[in-house]
Amino acid sequence: MRLRTHLQRCATIKQPIRVVARAGQTSLNASSGMKPASKDLQPPKDLPTLSSLEWSKPLQIVRYPDPRLRAVNAKITKFDSSLLELAKEMIQAMYLDDGVGLAAPQVGINARLMVFNPHGKEKPGNESILVNPEIVSISKSTAVETEGCLSFPDRCSNDVSRTLIYADVERPRDIIVKAQDEKGEPVQLQLGGLSDLGAFISRIFQHEYDHLQGILFHDRMKANVLDSVRTSLQALEEEFLVANPGVKIQRIPAMKVKKGF
């Protein structure tokens, strides 16, 4: 994920992630204004498991509409040096494209792993690695922000500084998450809050978590917003099909035509 103004918005605020429970502690209490995660945010039933990770250097960002971005992502069960090395390589791939978040399917690995750093490469050492994450609950209140995704280069922009497709996406402001760290230790996090950085980290997590669910950011766009980037998305679809003839892809929905006046 990339957000145009993240460096300015995140420069001076500290302690954005609140760890509210670890292994052996009681589960999270329901917070005021929260509700259970919706069905699309729940991991698929009968989720496959992955006992070993197969990957090679250098990692390459997978571009829309590559089918791997829509595939089921397996639960990781082995926490070893290979997992940590993969996470480190993902962080470097993320920084190479000036990103602040990256999910494993975005580098062609269908596993439930994400990395992020809200400060980006400007402040290394602030990276988070989350394995097998799950959203437990979401806030009833939502917010709209402009997002970009490393898997969605913009082929139609006349602005040379605009390398990605950007569009507004509505998401819950706050979330409660459970996951494992790179060592397999359980953690529970409360993301969001009143600070700009807290809200930004909540959004990064949700964007990357969607990738683990096979959901892409244009799936979350309202119809009028989707229409505003339709040409750019279709250009990526045609580019992929030319390079990969015969491969079946999931195209964006057709534009809805209003009838009457």
TrEMBL record:
GO molecular function, one term: peptide deformylase activity
Gene3D superfamilies, per database record: Peptide deformylase (3.90.45.10)
UniProt keyword Zinc, yes or no: no
InterPro entries referenced in this protein's UniProt entry, alphabetically: Peptide_deformylase, Peptide_deformylase_sf
Pfam families tied to this protein: Pep_deformylase (PF01327)
GO cellular component terms attached to this protein's record: chloroplast
Principal EC category: hydrolase
Catalysed reactions, as listed in the record: N-terminal N-formyl-L-methionyl-[peptide] + H2O = N-terminal L-methionyl-[peptide] + formate
Compartment(s) where it occurs, according to its Swiss-Prot or TrEMBL record: Plastid, Chloroplast
Enzyme Commission identifier(s): 3.5.1.88
Gene Ontology process terms (BP): translation
Residues covered by region (Disordered): 28-49
Keyword terms, alphabetized: Chloroplast, Hydrolase, Iron, Metal-binding, Plastid, Protein biosynthesis, Transit peptide
Homology family: Belongs to the polypeptide deformylase family.
Function: Removes the formyl group from the N-terminal Met of newly synthesized proteins.
Entry protein name: Peptide deformylase
Species the sequence originates in: Chlamydomonas eustigma
